[in-house]
Amino acid sequence: MPPNHIVITGHPKLAESLQEAAHIADFLRERGLDAPFGSLYDEKLRKRVHAEEFDLLIAVGGDGTMLRAAHLCAPHNLPVLGVNKGRLGFLFQVEITGWESLLERLLAGDFWVEKRMMLQAEHLRSGESLGIWQALNDVVVARGQHLRPIHISASADGQYLTSYVADGLIAASATGSTAYALAAGGPILPPELRNILLVPIAPHLSVDRAIVLSEGVTVSMTILSENAIMSLDGQLPISLAEEDRVDVRAGENSAQFVRFGDPGYFYRNLTAHLNQNSAAGLSK
Question: 141 and 126 in one domain?
């Protein structure tokens, strides 16, 4: 069914994204829809999302904006339509130019909703939980301010896998396989998969290959060094102490994104991004 209660948000530090959000709101109002707009961090709009007043959120910005929109909307099963104002745009189909025709399709009900697994990370110290968070891309355990590599022991469902001496270890979702995990040499996973990907960062005399874990597995990362941190989706780091453990599993919530056309969009986007490599044309 076409959405009837839409909210449009933009990144507060990107004036152009807020201007475009206002243009989208005007476009929708001309078609009889009352569509409030504002910053993604506007507390009044966020409270209305939490109150489940809307059936679609349009986010204008880059990949970071989409991550934050997913964090906000996933617990409420609220789909997100991203309009790309950034550079990479792995999560987008709609570009900042030409969104009008796709919004017409949206209002005609010509779209589908893609669900992507969120990760749940739990920080444990001496068996006590210090916090639980959700992430769409990845949970990264890494060295802090010191340049020395850290030691990390990894296990899956309580079974020891291996130990790493590295700058860090990434536990990524399929969505995150095109983010930091890709930069660290990991494989690209189709977005519908519910596997967890383990990718070491600059391993030293350790296993240097990524590991794709089975769906439903809980991966545990135990810190065997001082001065380690944890970051979720690139947010502010959380300090970890020696012997702390970080458990990562599939989360209860799924991020939902509005898509147009066939599911092959992912591979078309992927090809377009890979072809941006300056060396890509040399083999043609």
Answer: yes
